[in-house]
Design brief:
The protein has about 220 residues and is an alpha/beta fold. It is built from six helices and eight strands. The strands form two sheets. The protein has a five-stranded parallel β-sheet, with no helix packed on it. Strands 6-7-8 form a three-stranded antiparallel β-sheet, with helices on one face. A hairpin with a 5-residue loop joins strand 6 and strand 7. Helix 4 packs across helix 6. It is globular and about 40 Å long. The relative contact order is 0.14.
Length: about 220
């Protein structure tokens, strides 16, 4: 009995010591602080090269056929090579599937070559609107490449349009490689797009930048 009492007393003393000397939590790794550190002004979307496949899945989830897609692209806030490359990569990947395209931009000259090619190769007349007239936009799928300002449902295309901010919200990837796609103020889970080797070796940023550069060089080679 005395031995049991001594063990119980030692246990109580140990609990008191722990309460009085609580260790400080170690700082979280940068990866775990991703949401706190997120900034639309510096965000690089790691899924640009898969965007055409993601759009197909999103449209299917929304019961909208690709042939009925009416795409509205809200141009970037300012000239940034990285953002312009993102826009061009997506447009190039979608060009064979587009029956309607509206560019909301204040720099139409930047898209003149693309517009000419779309007309010559696909017979599609690309429409344009200045950003000041965005409330006149018509379309059922909006890709917003701006980094500032509010969400497009407040002032572009139909209120029922599928709105996808490219930089204003983070596009997250779960451990099982599901993609959490921002759609308006909500999130849509898209599965089965990323290859298994996506999370093996090297950082995500390094891989997607390398892949995007490869796609860009290939695009320039094909267009001459």
């Amino acid at each position: 009995m005395f031995q049991i009492f001594k063990k119980w007393k030692a246990y109580v003393q140990l609990r008191k010591n722990r309460k009085g000397n609580i260790p400080q939590a170690e700082p979280e790794p940068a990866l775990l602080r991703k949401k706190e550190a997120f900034s639309p002004l510096t965000y690089r979307n790691p899924l640009i090269i898969y965007m055409h496949v993601i759009l197909e899945r999103v449209l299917a989830c929304k019961n909208l056929a690709c042939r009925n897609m009416e795409l509205v692209v809200i141009d970037a806030d300012q000239i940034r090579d990285e953002d312009d490359n993102d826009i061009q990569l997506i447009l190039d990947a979608l060009e064979q599937r587009l029956n309607y395209l509206l560019l909301i931009t204040d720099r139409p000259d930047s898209y003149q070559r693309f517009m000419d090619e779309m007309y010559e190769e696909n017979g599609l007349i690309v429409q344009q609107l200045p950003k000041s007239a965005r409330r006149q936009a018509r379309g059922n799928l909006v890709l917003d490449f701006e980094r500032s300002g509010g969400f497009a449902p407040d002032g572009a295309a139909s209120p029922k349009a599928i709105y996808m901010p490219i930089y204003k919200r983070p596009w997250e990837i779960r451990e099982n490689l599901d993609i959490l796609v921002p759609v308006g103020y909500n999130t849509l889970v898209v599965e089965g797009i990323l290859p298994p080797e996506w999370n093996e070796g090297g950082s995500i940023n390094e891989r997607f930048i390398k892949d995007r550069m490869t796609d860009r060089l290939d695009r320039e080679f094909r267009k001459g």
